[in-house]
Design goal:
This protein is an alpha/beta fold and about 400 residues long. It is built from 14 helices and 18 strands. It has a domain of about 230 residues: FAD/NAD(P)-binding domain (3-Layer(bba) Sandwich), CATH 3.50.50. Strands 6-5-14-15-16-13-17 form a seven-stranded mixed sheet, with helices on both faces. It has a five-stranded parallel sheet with strand order 8-2-1-12-18, sandwiched between helices. Strands 3-7-4 form a three-stranded antiparallel sheet. It starts with 9 loop residues before the first strand and ends with a helix.
Length: about 400
């Protein structure tokens, strides 16, 4: 294989959180890349996102924490589980001191768009190519050809597919099979702080569990708003676009018989978004030749462990190290990357999948057993394999 004297030409398809994180970590590792994003401007839809210690420690290594903390809210309480009918607390973890003591970082919540801006600050603007929708990927032993909808093309030594659950790049590796609908839809809305009930303004991630449904809320945007995300049976609703909407009445109807604090919060929000959750089975292989996947393109997962973006960031950090360590042998670098990441992300996909059923148990013996288990456990400790993981250190051990 001929040497690549200036490092491999790296093309990243997708300019979301995962794609920009890949660019940022590649820059940190001394490599260069081009990000091809189909949108005319970089935006991140959706409202809130949780940044647990396993992701925060990597953001800190990008030297973007000052930017991140301008709008992020530090959680004092996390995984506060409540019963749907009366709000009785089933379990709660105190994050104030224990989180940093256990894992070396704290837990934060923020807007997805603010996180995107934070990561973008670590990527040179000259690396970004907007309005380029990738329509095909043609790989040969020596390089990869990308074709775009406007007729333009680009050649690369390495292609990273960070283009989401409908990934064009994934189709090259795993076939163009559509994702499956989960039978669950998600509602989301943002409530201005002045309109939110006082209990929702606390720096806590509160999860209300009920039959067939659950609802999550926490403050975002420096405490100026509350993010609300709820999950309910999808019925005939199969649209998965983040831009799809419902009505406040439809959202309220799903939770009408819940604790009044929940319904008050739902009614205080603006027009809610609603999208169907998609499902894909874990892949046994992410890479082929000079092409690989990252984030939702590789391992879409239900949001019930709040680890989707965090795992994209972990992917990016590990991939950058692998490519920087073997710049003249991209294929070997990508094999090392997928070997390091597939076991962890597969485990998280499976755990997130199982939590859908656990969160939505009907009232009865199984629900009572779940609630008893929640009360007896410390989520901060039981989730240590998630929060305590250092993706970069794990690669070198």
């Amino acid at each position: 294989m001929p040497a690549l004297p200036h490092g491999p030409r790296i093309a990243i398809v997708g300019g979301g959180i995962g794609g920009l994180a890949a660019a940022a970590f590649l820059r940190r590792a001394g490599l260069t890349a081009t990000v091809h994003e189909q949108a005319a401007e970089l935006t991140e839809v959706g409202a809130g996102i949780i940044m647990a210690p396993n992701a925060v420690r990597l953001l800190r290594r990008l030297d973007v924490m000052r930017t991140f903390l301008r709008r992020a809210v530090e959680l004092e309480w996390g995984w506060e589980f409540r019963r749907w009918a009366d709000g009785s607390v089933l379990s709660v973890e105190n994050l104030t001191d224990a989180c940093e003591e256990l894992y070396g970082e704290r837990t934060y919540v923020t807007r997805r768009s603010d996180l995107l801006d934070t990561i973008r600050s670590a990527v040179p603007s000259t690396w970004l190519r907007l309005g380029e929708r990738c329509v095909s990927v043609e790989a040969s032993p020596d390089d990869v050809l990308l074709r775009f909808a406007d007729g333009s093309r680009a050649e690369a030594d390495v292609v990273i597919g960070a283009d989401g659950v409908h990934s064009v790049v994934r189709g090259v590796l795993a076939g163009r099979t559509p994702p499956e609908y989960s039978g669950v839809c998600a509602f989301r809305t943002v409530v201005p702080a002045h309109a939110a009930p006082a209990f929702a303004l606390r720096p806590a991630q509160t999860i209300w569990l009920g039959p067939g449904r659950h609802l999550v809320h926490y403050p975002i945007a420096g405490g100026s708003a509350v993010n609300v995300a709820a999950f309910a049976p999808a019925g005939d609703h199969v649209e998965e676009s983040w831009s799809a909407t419902a009505t406040t009445e439809e959202f309220h109807a799903e939770f009408a018989d819940w604790d009044p604090r929940v319904t008050d919060l739902v009614l205080a929000g603006g027009r809610p978004g609603r999208w169907a959750l998609l499902d894909r089975a874990p892949l046994r292989q992410w890479s082929r030749g000079r092409v690989t996947l990252l984030g939702d393109a590789a391992h879409p997962m239900y949001p019930f462990f709040a680890q989707g973006a965090a795992q994209s960031i972990e992917d990016a950090a590990v991939l950058a190290i692998c490519l920087a360590t073997s710049p003249d042998d991209p294929e070997q670098a990508l094999k090392r990357y997928e070997s390091a990441r597939i076991p962890r992300t597969t485990r998280l996909q499976e755990f997130s999948h199982a939590r859908r059923d656990t969160n939505h148990l009907p009232d009865g013996p199984e629900q009572e057993t779940r609630d008893t288990s929640l009360a007896a456990s410390d989520p901060l400790v039981t989730a240590g394999w998630i929060y305590g993981h250092d993706a970069e250190a794990a690669l070198t051990t």
